[in-house]
């Protein structure tokens, strides 16, 4: 009898243990899914069932079109109201996966006579898929270590804020389904690699296609898997399993991905995808050489082969470079390139740099999103290094790359989160298994025989193989993936030196560590709940403010203003606003917009920026040329809503400057001291700019005689601003949204400034006729 | 006695001249005139009445009837014939007159010599009036009338407004210098010898000329670049006419001989002016526009790039005599633009012979998708403006709208087909050959 | 007529005046090898409203007692660009002048332009003659140091005002190349010698874990935003949730590393400890480390995120 730290029931039949274990597993998974879905419903409970911030509004609109008109109409959808007057070929410029998914769900429910509103499907899609993500992560981690680790990982991914931030109910964005597809594709890849099965490789390719159709981030997979394969080759771990898995995945996956209209021929023509192609070629060469090697035995011929291998590799690389310079292969796209050269975006593509989720990540947001996992997962990576199987390499590479990307862009935290969950799950489960394992290490070697029986009985737990076999083939035991506590116990009791030489003495130590870990896990749960409920659940369409007495006060200006537009303006009235609000205007107000959040046309956006940042009389021709009827600005000065247009103004100026460097200069908008001010010290250009005037028009009147204060900038707001070319049409309750109507030209052909002066009854100075003599002189 | 005969003659001639002509925008006319002087303009007023206008008279003093009620004008046309009045009542300010125009009410304004609010009004139409109290003066031709009463001879087609021959017109009042506003239409030019200056007790004011000459012509209001009667058509089609002085309308000048035994042209002239201002003459409108594919009839709400589109517009002209709109094919310079931000297509829109009033053209839509507009923008001096804009999106071909089975693509087809065939053959052979293969392998090993 | 003649004379006179002031400037430029060192009246000469030439002027304060660090940083860049400009052929070169104005030589100019800070670079386009810009905008434009004090961007920017682009080439940094070459060779030889060490998995494990820790410590943030290592007021924690200083990277990475390390110890090393007493000691030790460091981390986080409700031991 090995000394056990605490008694273990020895009279359990193998079947019972096996079944209870699997039952527990299923129940736990179900509970985890429940938790994952429930924790994403805060936004509905705190606010209401509404689509969140910006992009989701477009996805929602597109989905409605899909549900109403069917897939082909959606594919051919040309939206004349977006990017007026250029229009947008939506079918060809969108990742249809998300819309297709909810469209299919919608049709199925209709077929089942369940009349569910398409909006609710869209709102609840993300939570639903988060449950699937948990399951996918479970499968993935199971491939890495074992079921228990898988369950831990599933629990983590279920509630970790880093993932919740993009998948709360109502945030109907591509990421909602993309993370599930990411994890599941990776799982299938690992499975295919382990078993060397073309079937799993093909399934992986199919899900890869789904991923491509769903999210631009598929490029991550497209590079992650080849890197994994490449590393395996370099480590001399080439195997036919790898060959089969990769080739089946790449061939089918690439062909499939080229069917997505928005992707088209990129997989064979852009640099992002060249890595995959290169590795594919390399694999062929290596496989060929392996083949020749296995038939030829001459020493120096093999050396020749090596040279050949290296030469071909170099040749391929140089060919790639050559083609890139000839423009046959498009170089890195800006978004992708800015990941490597971090200064690139700000200098050349300000639109990308201006997006808040493209900012670099400071450490607090890492901790906010991942809490304890952030420091547990290095440990997990170490564990992966300990038993360095092929799939562990994947986790290692993934962690290193993803942590770099997450550092560069906040939004890529999303790709880091899954691997963090997996790695820390591995670490924690190893820890717990070590400390829950009841076997004391001082195994008395002389009493091996009687132990056998005990071994037999307890071996029950080991999922499939009876302990006897194990005892004979310890190697097999070690290799077998599931090394649950009880099977280790078996290994120990069957007198394996390796196993018995390690372990924990005493009960207190176990209790200390286990309690410590449990306590951390509990803290983690509290943290996640807190962060989710407070930080990540607000739908930025509806704002909430705490009254002094702690009462919640809902600020609904956006919808108020958008519905005003919908009710009070003609169908074809063109609304100009900064691009952040394009999708919302299209979605809620259903009016044509000049620019929106899919920022495909820099010049058009720069035009809007120019109109906003130049003076009235300069802006007016631009507005008329684009048939603008209404101009919409966001102004937070009254209630201190900091995300307003004055704070984004400098980006408009920069983007406009990029296109018209000699008409718009950023430096003109600063005070001589180089400050960005809105009060009376503001620079002349600033004070005359359209955006400034529209923001502060009649603002001072609110305060009667008192000092008007902008509560975002904490500066005095300017007084008596006059608008000659625009009329104030609407201002929302808290002044967040202000809408102005663009005046038509004067019927007498005067410029509107003097027309206005005449209306106000101002005298204009008498002018004399130009006599013919003077005219002659002048000529 | 003699005068009496002339009276009758005049009456007859009037009767002959008079035809019942209608305005295209309405017959209600408000005349603001000093009741004392009302009879001085009887010929003009009777002429209007006989044309079928309902004249409402209003004294500058009183405020009834009101012109604008709740942003609606009570009258189709307004005549301000009380130039010398201090003010024309509270509700007739320069601002309100501009508002009248914006409500598509047509206005005839007789300008005063003295300073008055109407000067401010004229300035808004970029008319520049001489300093107060300086009427138009001319010493030639030599005549017995005062130098401020000038016979102006009108040559035909000097202005698009004057459609028929006009005998010389007696003018007395102030000239207007024209600013550079394309909407201005000079109707009656001042004679080349005339100039504007203060009238002194002695005949005329040669001094004015002299010291003006000293100043090198500085501020001298002289010559045929000045205009005595000026029309203005606002962009919304409303028309306003500034007449240098009210006397042009007066009976006295109407009956005064221009030359020996030659009746003056004032009657016809004012009639022409009124006819133009009150939207009788040179009034066009676009009845409807339609567009469809060249070999189609139904208008489509979206066109595909490179479609051949046919666009046609129906234009009609107001016939004052009949008082109805009639199809009009007279325009030779009508243009059509197909624009998105900038015109992608600009082509002539010629009249279709055989179809009166129909203008039509066909063109190929540009190879560029977007939201395009069919734009007609026809602005000619004197004529009412023709403006029309029809929005239609031009979309790329549908997914199945592209040509298929190109002969140029056969290499690719062949490649695809051969690959699939090869794959099929390979797999069948391989599957079939499996067993033997392995056996052979065994055999090889055993040996 | 008279007026006409007089004006004609005036023009001619002006032309001559321009001619010789141009000559003077050229000499000055030659003297200061490409960069004119201005005082107040030569400044007025250079920026005269009738100038047919363009100029780029650096306003700086280089004297010791002003101790303006950025001025000293920027000055060499400006002078190198000026030097590069002096190498183009004379016909073009004399169309555009590089000049520098030190505060101590002409404080009144600083007041006139109401310049409160230095260094500042103004580009004066030609106000007259053939090279007057079509837009007619002859007001000087300021160079905003968006791309730092490097000479390359400066030359690129100023080339918009010169008749021909400034032939500025970044000097080849031999030292850099040399060091990299040395490094490569060194690494290569090192690999040869220490191959058995380098190619052990634990070396790689160490390396990758370090990378991960640094990155999750917010290193890229400091790189991209170029934040200082510590704040001006000496404290090393930047206020605000989405902001941090360079030192925080090290501290946070160290804390993470320590916690991860204690986990690794508990999992991998401790179980191999054969003597119960020692093992128990280690278990308690690492447990304590985890608890304490973790609560330190949380309190650190509370500093960054004031609203955070939870706290551990401290």
From TrEMBL, chain A:
EC number: 2.4.99.18
Record's keyword annotation contains Metal-binding: yes
Compartments, as annotated in UniProt: Endoplasmic reticulum membrane
Main location per the UniProt record: endoplasmic reticulum
UniProt KW Endoplasmic reticulum keyword: yes
Catalysed reactions, semicolon-separated: a di-trans,poly-cis-dolichyl diphosphooligosaccharide + L-asparaginyl-[protein] = N(4)-(oligosaccharide-(1->4)-N-acetyl-beta-D-glucosaminyl-(1->4)-N-acetyl-beta-D-glucosaminyl)-L-asparaginyl-[protein] + a di-trans,poly-cis-dolichyl diphosphate + H(+)
Its membrane topology: Multi-pass membrane protein
Residue ranges constituting the Oligosaccharyl transferase STT3 N-terminal domain according to the UniProt record: 24-423
InterPro entries attached to this UniProt entry: AglB-like_core (IPR054479), Oligo_trans_STT3 (IPR003674), STT3_N (IPR048307)
Domain of life: Eukaryota
Cofactor: Mn(2+); Mg(2+)
AglB-like core domain ranges (all copies): 564-633
TM annotation in the entry: 23-45, 89-109, 121-141, 147-164, 176-192, 198-221, 242-262, 274-292, 304-325, 366-385, 392-410, 511-532
Enzyme class at the top of the EC tree: transferase
GO cellular component: oligosaccharyltransferase complex
GO terms for biological process, alphabetical: post-translational protein modification; protein N-linked glycosylation via asparagine
Listed GO MF terms: dolichyl-diphosphooligosaccharide-protein glycotransferase activity; metal ion binding
Disordered: annotated span: 758-779
Biased composition annotated in UniProt, kind: Basic residues: 761-779
Keywords assigned: Endoplasmic reticulum, Glycoprotein, Glycosyltransferase, Magnesium, Manganese, Membrane, Metal-binding, Transferase, Transmembrane, Transmembrane helix
Pathway field: Protein modification; protein glycosylation
Family: Belongs to the STT3 family.
Known role: Catalytic subunit of the oligosaccharyl transferase (OST) complex that catalyzes the initial transfer of a defined glycan (Glc(3)Man(9)GlcNAc(2) in eukaryotes) from the lipid carrier dolichol-pyrophosphate to an asparagine residue within an Asn-X-Ser/Thr consensus motif in nascent polypeptide chains, the first step in protein N-glycosylation. N-glycosylation occurs cotranslationally and the complex associates with the Sec61 complex at the channel-forming translocon complex that mediates protein translocation across the endoplasmic reticulum (ER).
Protein name: Dolichyl-diphosphooligosaccharide--protein glycosyltransferase subunit STT3
Organism: Candolleomyces aberdarensis
Automatic annotation (TrEMBL), chain B:
The OST48 middle domain, residue ranges: 291-432
Domain (OST48 N-terminal) ranges: 29-277
Subcellular location(s) per record: Endoplasmic reticulum membrane; Membrane
Alphabetical UniProt keywords: Endoplasmic reticulum, Membrane, Signal, Transmembrane, Transmembrane helix
Residue ranges crossing the lipid bilayer per the database entry: 410-432
Pathway stated in the Swiss-Prot or TrEMBL entry: Protein modification; protein glycosylation
Record's signal peptide: 1-23
GO cellular component, one term: oligosaccharyltransferase complex
Biological-process GO terms, alphabetical: protein N-linked glycosylation via asparagine
Matches recorded under Pfam families: OST48_MD, OST48_N
InterPro entries xrefs: DDOST_48_kDa_subunit, OST48_MD, OST48_N
Topology in the lipid bilayer: Single-pass type I membrane protein
PANTHER family in the record: DOLICHYL-DIPHOSPHOOLIGOSACCHARIDE--PROTEIN GLYCOSYLTRANSFERASE 48 KDA SUBUNIT (PTHR10830:SF0)
Quaternary state and interactors: Component of the oligosaccharyltransferase (OST) complex.
Purpose: Subunit of the oligosaccharyl transferase (OST) complex that catalyzes the initial transfer of a defined glycan (Glc(3)Man(9)GlcNAc(2) in eukaryotes) from the lipid carrier dolichol-pyrophosphate to an asparagine residue within an Asn-X-Ser/Thr consensus motif in nascent polypeptide chains, the first step in protein N-glycosylation. N-glycosylation occurs cotranslationally and the complex associates with the Sec61 complex at the channel-forming translocon complex that mediates protein translocation across the endoplasmic reticulum (ER).
Family of this protein: Belongs to the DDOST 48 kDa subunit family.
Protein name (Swiss-Prot/TrEMBL): Dolichyl-diphosphooligosaccharide--protein glycosyltransferase subunit WBP1
Species this protein is from: Candolleomyces aberdarensis
Lineage: Eukaryota, Fungi, Dikarya, Basidiomycota, Agaricomycotina
Automatic annotation (TrEMBL), chain C:
Protein location: Endoplasmic reticulum membrane
Transmembrane regions: 174-195, 202-221, 251-271, 283-303
SUPFAM superfamilies for this protein: Thioredoxin-like
Gene Ontology biological process terms in this record: protein N-linked glycosylation via asparagine
Database matches in InterPro entries: OligosaccharylTrfase_OST3/OST6 (IPR021149), Thioredoxin-like_sf (IPR036249)
Main localisation: endoplasmic reticulum
Annotated keywords: Endoplasmic reticulum, Membrane, Signal, Transmembrane, Transmembrane helix
Gene Ontology CC, one term: oligosaccharyltransferase complex
Topological relation to the membrane, as annotated: Multi-pass membrane protein
Signal sequence range: 1-17
PANTHER family in the record: DOLICHYL-DIPHOSPHOOLIGOSACCHARIDE--PROTEIN GLYCOSYLTRANSFERASE-RELATED, GH11935P
Family from the record: Belongs to the OST3/OST6 family.
Function: Subunit of the oligosaccharyl transferase (OST) complex that catalyzes the initial transfer of a defined glycan (Glc(3)Man(9)GlcNAc(2) in eukaryotes) from the lipid carrier dolichol-pyrophosphate to an asparagine residue within an Asn-X-Ser/Thr consensus motif in nascent polypeptide chains, the first step in protein N-glycosylation. N-glycosylation occurs cotranslationally and the complex associates with the Sec61 complex at the channel-forming translocon complex that mediates protein translocation across the endoplasmic reticulum (ER). All subunits are required for a maximal enzyme activity.
Designated name of the protein: Dolichyl-diphosphooligosaccharide-protein glycotransferase
Species: Candolleomyces aberdarensis
């Amino acid at each position: 009898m090995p000394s056990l730290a605490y008694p273990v029931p020895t009279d359990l039949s193998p079947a019972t243990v096996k079944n209870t274990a699997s039952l527990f597993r299923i129940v736990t998974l179900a509970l985890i899914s429940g938790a994952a879905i429930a924790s994403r419903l805060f936004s509905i409970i705190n606010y209401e069932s509404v689509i969140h911030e910006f992009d989701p509004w477009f996805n929602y609109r597109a989905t409605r079109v899909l549900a109403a008109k069917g897939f082909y109409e959606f594919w051919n959808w040309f939206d004349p109201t977006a990017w007026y007057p250029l229009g947008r070929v939506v079918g060809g410029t969108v990742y249809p996966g998300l819309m297709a998914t909810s469209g299919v769900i919608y049709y199925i429910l209709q077929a089942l006579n369940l009349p569910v509103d398409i909006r609710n499907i869209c709102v609840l899609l993300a939570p639903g898929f988060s449950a699937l993500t948990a399951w996918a992560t479970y499968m993935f981690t199971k491939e890495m270590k074992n079921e228990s680790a898988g369950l831990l990982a599933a629990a983590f991914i279920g509630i970790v804020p880093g993932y919740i931030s993009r998948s709360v109910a109502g945030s109907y964005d591509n990421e909602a389904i993309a993370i599930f597809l990411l994890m599941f594709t990776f799982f299938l890849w690992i499975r295919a690699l382990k078993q060397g099965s073309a079937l799993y490789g093909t399934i992986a390719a199919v899900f890869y296609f789904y991923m491509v159709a769903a999210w631009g981030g598929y490029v991550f997979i497209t590079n992650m898997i080849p890197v994994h394969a490449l590393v395996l080759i370099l480590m001399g771990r080439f195997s036919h399993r790898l060959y089969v898995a990769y080739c089946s995945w790449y061939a089918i996956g690439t062909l499939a991905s080229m069917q997505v209209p928005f992707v088209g021929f990129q997989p064979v023509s852009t640099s992002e995808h060249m890595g995959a192609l290169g590795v594919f070629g390399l694999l062929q060469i290596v496989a060929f050489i392996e083949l020749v090697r296995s038939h030829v035995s001459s020493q120096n011929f093999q050396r020749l082969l090596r040279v050949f291998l290296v030469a071909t590799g170099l040749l391929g690389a140089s060919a790639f470079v050559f083609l890139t310079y000839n423009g046959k292969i498009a170089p890195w796209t800006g978004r992708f390139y800015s990941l490597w050269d971090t200064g690139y975006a700000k200098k050349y593509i300000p639109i990308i740099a201006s997006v808040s989720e493209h900012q670099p990540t400071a450490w607090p947001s890492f901790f906010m999103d991942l809490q304890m996992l952030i420091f547990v997962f290095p440990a997990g990576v170490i564990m992966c290094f300990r038993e360095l199987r092929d799939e562990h390499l994947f986790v290692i590479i993934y962690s290193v790359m993803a942590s770099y990307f997450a550092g560069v862009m906040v939004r890529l935290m999303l790709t880091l989160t899954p691997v963090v969950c997996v790695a820390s799950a591995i670490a924690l489960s190893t820890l717990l298994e070590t400390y829950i394992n009841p076997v004391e290490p001082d195994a008395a070697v002389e009493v091996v025989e009687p132990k056998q029986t005990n071994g037999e009985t307890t071996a029950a737990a080991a999922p499939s193989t009876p302990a006897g076999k194990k005892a004979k083939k310890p190697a097999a035991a070690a290799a077998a993936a599931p090394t649950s506590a009880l099977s280790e116990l078996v290994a120990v009791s069957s007198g394996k030196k390796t196993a018995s030489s390690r372990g924990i003495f005493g009960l207190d130590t176990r209790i200390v560590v286990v309690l410590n870990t449990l306590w951390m896990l509990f803290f983690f749960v509290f943290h996640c709940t807190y962060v989710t409920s407070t930080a990540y659940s607000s739908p930025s369409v509806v704002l909430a403010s705490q009254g002094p007495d702690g009462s919640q006060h809902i600020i609904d200006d956006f919808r108020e203003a958008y519905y005003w537009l919908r009710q009070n303006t003609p169908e074809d009235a063109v609304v100009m606003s900064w691009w952040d609000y394009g999708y919302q205007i299209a979605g809620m107000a259903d009016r044509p917009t000049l620019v929106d959040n899919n920022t495909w046309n820099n010049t058009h956006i720069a035009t809007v920026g120019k109109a906003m940042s130049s003076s009235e009389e300069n802006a007016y021709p631009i507005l008329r040329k684009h048939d603008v009827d209404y101009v919409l600005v966001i102004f937070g000065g009254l209630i201190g809503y900091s995300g307003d247009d004055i704070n984004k103004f400098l980006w408009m100026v920069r983007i406009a400057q990029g296109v018209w460097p000699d008409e718009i200069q950023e430096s003109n908008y600063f005070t001589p001291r180089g400050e960005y001010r809105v009060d009376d010290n503001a620079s002349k250009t600033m004070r005359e700019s359209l955006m400034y005037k529209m923001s502060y028009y009649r603002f001072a009147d609110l305060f009667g005689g008192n000092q008007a204060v902008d509560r975002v900038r904490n500066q005095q707001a300017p007084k008596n601003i006059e608008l000659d070319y625009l009329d104030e049409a609407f201002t929302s309750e808290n002044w967040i949204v202000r809408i102005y109507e663009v005046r038509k030209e004067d019927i007498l052909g005067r410029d509107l400034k003097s027309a206005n002066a005449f209306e106000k009854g101002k005298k204009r100075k008498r002018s004399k006729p130009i006599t013919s003599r003077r005219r002659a002189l002048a000529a | 006695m003699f005068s009496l005969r002339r009276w009758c003659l005049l009456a007859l001639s009037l009767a002959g001249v008079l035809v019942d002509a209608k305005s295209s925008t309405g017959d209600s006319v408000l005349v603001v005139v000093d009741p004392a002087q009302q009879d001085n303009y009887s010929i003009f007023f009777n002429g209007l009445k006989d044309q079928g206008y309902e004249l409402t008279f209003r004294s500058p003093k009183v405020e009834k009837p009101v012109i604008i009620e709740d942003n609606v004008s009570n009258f189709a046309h307004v005549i301000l014939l009380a130039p010398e009045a201090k003010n024309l009542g509270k509700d007739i300010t320069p601002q309100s007159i501009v508002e009248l125009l914006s409500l598509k009410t047509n206005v005839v304004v007789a300008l005063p010599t003295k300073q008055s609010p109407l000067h401010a009004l004229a300035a808004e139409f970029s008319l520049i009036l001489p300093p107060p109290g300086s009427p138009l003066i001319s010493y030639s031709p030599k005549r017995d009338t005062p130098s401020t009463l000038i016979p102006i001879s009108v040559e035909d087609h000097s202005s698009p407004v004057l459609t028929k021959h006009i005998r010389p017109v007696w003018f007395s009042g102030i000239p207007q210098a024209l600013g550079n506003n394309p909407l201005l239409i000079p109707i009656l030019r001042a004679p080349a010898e005339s100039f504007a200056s203060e009238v002194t007790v002695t005949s005329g004011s040669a001094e004015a000329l002299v010291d003006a000459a000293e100043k090198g012509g500085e501020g001298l209001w002289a010559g045929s670049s000045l205009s005595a009667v000026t029309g203005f058509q606002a962009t919304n089609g409303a028309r306003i006419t500034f007449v240098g002085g009210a006397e042009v309308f007066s009976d006295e000048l109407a009956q005064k001989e221009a030359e020996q035994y030659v009746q003056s042209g004032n009657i016809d002239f004012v009639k022409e002016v009124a006819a133009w201002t009150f939207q009788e003459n040179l009034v066009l409108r676009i009845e409807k526009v339609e567009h469809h594919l060249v070999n189609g009839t139904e208008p489509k709400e979206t066109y595909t790039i490179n479609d051949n589109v046919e666009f046609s517009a129906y234009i009609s002209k107001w016939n004052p005599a009949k008082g109805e709109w009639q199809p009009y094919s007279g325009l030779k310079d009508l243009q059509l633009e197909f624009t998105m931000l900038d015109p992608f297509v600009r082509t002539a829109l010629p009249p279709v012979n055989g179809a009166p009033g129909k203008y039509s053209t066909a063109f190929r839509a540009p190879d560029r998708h977007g939201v395009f507009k069919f734009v007609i923008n026809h602005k000619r001096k004197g004529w009412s403006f023709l403006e029309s804009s029809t929005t239609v999106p031009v979309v790329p071909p549908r997914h199945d709208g592209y040509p298929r089975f190109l002969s140029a693509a056969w290499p690719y087809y062949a490649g695809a087909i051969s690959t699939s065939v090869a794959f099929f053959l390979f797999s069948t052979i391989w599957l079939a050959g499996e067993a033997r293969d392995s056996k052979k392998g065994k055999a090889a090993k055993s040996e | 007529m008279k007026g006409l003649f007089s004006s004609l004379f005036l023009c001619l006179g002006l032309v001559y005046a321009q001619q010789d002031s141009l000559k003077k400037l050229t000499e000055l430029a030659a003297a200061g090898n490409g960069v004119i060192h201005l005082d107040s009246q030569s400044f007025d000469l250079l920026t005269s409203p009738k100038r047919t030439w363009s100029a780029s002027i650096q306003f700086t304060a280089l004297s010791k007692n002003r101790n303006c660090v950025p001025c000293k940083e920027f000055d060499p860049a400006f002078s190198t660009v000026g030097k590069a400009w002096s190498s183009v052929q004379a016909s073009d070169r004399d169309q555009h002048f590089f000049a520098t104005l030190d505060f101590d030589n002409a404080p009144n100019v600083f007041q006139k332009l109401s310049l409160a800070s230095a260094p500042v670079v103004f580009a004066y386009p030609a106000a007259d003659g053939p090279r007057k810009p079509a837009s007619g905008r002859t007001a000087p434009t300021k160079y905003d140091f968006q791309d730092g004090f490097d000479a390359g961007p400066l030359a690129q920017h100023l080339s918009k005002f010169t008749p021909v682009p400034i032939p500025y080439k970044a000097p080849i940094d031999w030292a850099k190349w040399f060091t990299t070459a040395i490094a490569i060779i060194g690494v290569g030889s090192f690999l040869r010698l220490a191959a058995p060490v380098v190619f052990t998995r634990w070396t790689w494990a160490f390396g990758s874990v370090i990378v991960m820790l640094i990155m999750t410590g917010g290193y890229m943030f400091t790189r991209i935003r170029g934040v200082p290592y510590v704040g001006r007021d000496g404290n090393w924690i930047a206020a605000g949730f989405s902001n941090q200083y360079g030192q925080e990277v090290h501290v946070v990475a160290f804390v993470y590393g320590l916690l991860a390390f204690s986990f690794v110890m508990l999992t991998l090393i401790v179980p191999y400890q054969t003597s119960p007493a020692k093992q128990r000691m280690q278990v308690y030790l690492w447990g304590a480390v985890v608890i304490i460091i973790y609560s330190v981390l949380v309190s650190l986080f509370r500093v960054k995120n004031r609203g955070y409700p939870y706290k551990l031991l401290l």
